[in-house]
Known about the structure:
Elements: E1 2-4, H1 5-18, H2 26-31, H3 33-40, H4 52-63, E2 72-74, H5 99-137, E3 146-148, E4 153-155, H6 163-179, H7 182-185, E5 197-199, H8 201-218, E6 223-228, E7 234-240, E8 247-253, H9 257-265, E9 271-274, H10 280-290, E10 299-311, E11 319-321, H11 322-329, E12 347-351, H12 356-366, E13 378-380, H13 383-392, E14 396-401, E15 409-410, E16 412-414, H14 426-430, E17 437-443, H15 453-462, H16 464-472, E18 482-483, H17 493-498, E19 503-509, H18 520-535, E20 540-545, H19 553-572, E21 578-583, H20 596-602, E22 605-610
Parallel strand pairs: 5-8, 5-9, 11-16, 12-13, 12-14, 20-21
Antiparallel strand pairs: 1-2, 3-4, 6-7, 7-8, 9-17, 10-14, 10-15, 10-17, 18-19, 19-22, 20-22
Helix pairs in contact: 5-6, 15-16
Organism: Neptuniibacter pectenicola
Transmembrane segments: 101-120
Keywords: Membrane, Signal, Transmembrane, Transmembrane helix
Amino acid sequence: MKTTVFDLIWKLKRELERQGHEKIDLHRFTHDQAYRHAILLNIDITELPISKPLQQIYTELLAADTLELIQEVELPPEPISTVNNTANTSIEAVNHNNKPVYMVFAIVVFLLFSFSLIQFTNTTEKSTVSRVNKSLEKQPLSPSAPLRTNTSTVNLTSEPLADATVQTTRSIIQGYQKSTPSTVAHNTASPTTPFRIQGSNTIGELLAPELVKAFYKSQGATEFELIESEVEVEKSLAISHPDNRRHALVPIFAHGSSTGFSALAKKETDLAMASRRIKDKEVKTLASQYGDLRSKSTEHIIGMDGLAVIVNPNNPIDHLNTEQLAQIFSGHIKNWKALGGTNQAIQIFARDSNSGTWDSFKSMVLKKHGVALSPQATRIESSVELSDQVSKTAGAIGFIGLPYVLRAKALAISDDQYGQPIYPTSFTISTEDYPLVRRLYIYEPSTISTQSDAHKFIEFVLSKEGQDVVKQTGFISQNIYKTQPMLTANLPQTYIETVNNAQRLSLNFRFNSGTFVLDNKAVRDLERVVQFFEKNPAQQAMLIGFSDSIGDPQGNKSLSLQRAKAVESALLARGINIKNTVGLGEMAPIASNSTKTGRERNRRVEIWVNSNDPTSFNTATR
């Protein structure tokens, strides 16, 4: 069996991170020898759960000054004794040709194990029930989460355990102890479950585990292990404190945004992750249990993400508009030749129906143009797997969260055929100028105590430190920075003159639909703007309001100034002096005015800054 050097290095990166190594920059790991060697100083290849022949291959590769990433490598055959059979721990799976022999062997092992289990149950059942109930009475926070093994899930509650669940509970605890680090495994106390989190795969696959880890690290925890189940999108983070008495297990189940709200309804989770805003019907369904989940105190935007459209790296196409995307993903355009590409059939990959990524794409592309996804599309639950399939399949196209582009090629996207194609970058996503941008949410029910770990976790995520983790994980932080954007010739001259010599902050203020009331993100961003000016006291600010193009141009200009004035009042109330506030009406649209979503994106307020320069900030357009 052959594979490429790049595939081997990529799998090594994932294995090291799974073993507890901090996140590795794949590009630097493959191209920067000093960075690679610095990482290798702290690891021992021979301790990884891979065969000795494969260890030798890795040793030779990593000793090289440069890596020929496209070079093919012949993988050695591996005997069954060298394989770690625990789910998701082996870097390379082994092809077993002697299936009947292994089946007989597996049956014998199963029978022996069953007999031993029965004997063990008869002698320890009572003591196990007592031990589990005592440990659960000590848990100080929210109801315990499901602890999942490969085959069973059981809710550990303070209610007496039924006889039928005793053995399952024991196997779960024993399985947990066998899979955790030695510090946790030999801990005498049972693990608590401070909170549970379910929902979006976009958030849950990479971002949520890193945020939970960083939060508990800030609380003094010293050891962490991400325990993955047989179900790829279900994992738990084991956390150990230095006193060797307290340890916890935070379940993170990431089957898609819809499942987070379903889990809230069933009280199977404490926090719900979503890569799209909660729907009206979900708000109504959950209102009796949790109140208004769209309120400022319950709806938290934890970061930004661009919905990248990816193609095979060999595809010469560089940009598409949303109408072309709709035609491709609905199956109406079947060959790249129709778009100016090569004569090659289009292979469509899409996220599964529970995914917030899918909901966002369906809303921003398919529903916008009145089409449905082609029945020939391949649906995939995992973000990483989808990206991997697109990068390896000729003629492939898919959509994915920005951090999961990996080895695929991202396209520039325009809102319509007359719009400017925009690549998904940190700045175009943080300002929401990119057409396929979305907000990432965590919903915190009003029933959560402000003293609980769940609430403190949310506070950490929204802090500067938490947003730094968002950035490190590959998503777009909400921490504010300034930049000098490219002012292209197709922008109105009035706009260019207004921002002369100024720099733009990395956010736009937006409003609740049809109002002059700032939305939840904008309210949070006000505090971030205050922090920016506290650190940059010499800066002066200008607010520029914009509108959609529906109606009278002069009326739109007046509306845009009203929006800018609403932001001005909010900042003045927080002690921030605004040098200039202007309204430019329907100038410089960033989205199509033919749709409701596009019009809402065009109704925005930009904030620009400059040093104390009396010649800056032209007031002629006031």
